[in-house]
Amino acid sequence: MTELDEEHLLRRVARADRAAFDELYRRTSPWLAVRLRRRCADDGMVAEVMQDTYLAVWRAAGTFAGVQGGGSAAGWLWTIAARRLVDAMRKRARRPETPAEELPVRSTPAAEDEALAGSIGDEVGAALARLAPELRAVLHAMVLDGLTVRETSILLGLPEGTVKSRARRARTTLKEALS
Predict the structure, then answer these.
(1) Do residues 125 and 115 make contact, with C-beta atoms less than 8 angstroms apart?
(2) Which residue, 64, 70, 107, 136, shows the most beta carbons closer than 10 Å to its own?
(3) How far apart are CA 128 and CA 133, in angstroms?
(4) Angle of the 160-178 helix axis to the 149-156 helix axis, nearest 10
(5) Within 13 Å of residue 63, how many CA atoms lie on the same side as its CB?
(6) DSSP letters along 25-81, please?
(7) What does the alpha-carbon distance between residue 167 and residue 110 come to, in Å, rounded to a whole number?
(8) Are 138 and 156 in contact (CB under 8 A)?
(9) Each residue of 11-52: pLDDT tens digit?
(10) What CA–CA distance (Å, rounded) separates 68 from 60?
(11) How far is residue 161's CA from residue 141's CA, in Å, rounded to a whole number?
């Protein structure tokens, strides 16, 4: 298998040649799947990325510049797959792990609500009330609900680094307010 063979197959795929597409898939899918699995342990995600990649190849084969453009068919294919994998990982990171209908429903008021109402302590309640809403939400999730940084990140739809920095800012602000 030479790059020129795969380049030739891509040129035929660009002309909607299904036999060429089948041959290209037969030649490239085994190594592509191995490379994707090295970067992602989720077989379902790898299968989805493979499908998206070959769909993109079918649709965009005419855009492949070829060896004259400075690239190889395998390199072009890998670039498409790698981008699809990154997209799939980002999409999964934004999607909550637990469907909303499975989340427990609170039957008692949250400790934060009690603090804000003054039943725990006027000073703490006042300090919590002065926190910016985004800091209060992180503090509520991590301290009062006992969630991890990752769980808070998923719950609030924020990157983990943002959760960490907001938690630090909230604690610092509360400490200053209460000292």
Answers:
(1) yes
(2) 64
(3) 9
(4) 100
(5) 8
(6) HHHHHHHHHHHHHHH---HHHHHHHHHHHHHHHHHHGGG---GGGT--HHHHHHHHH
(7) 18
(8) yes
(9) 999 999 999 999 999 999 999 999 898 888 899 999 999 999
(10) 18
(11) 15
Nearest CA to 135 out of 84, 173, 109, 99 is that of: 173
Evaluate whether 112 touches 170 at the Cβ level (below 8 Å). Answer: no
Structure tokens, 165: 């920095």
- Counted residue by residue, the chain has a size of 179
DSSP designation for 157 = T
* pLDDT, tens digit, 9 for 90 and up, residues 54-74: 999 999 998 886 656 567 888
Residue with tokens 């490239």: 28
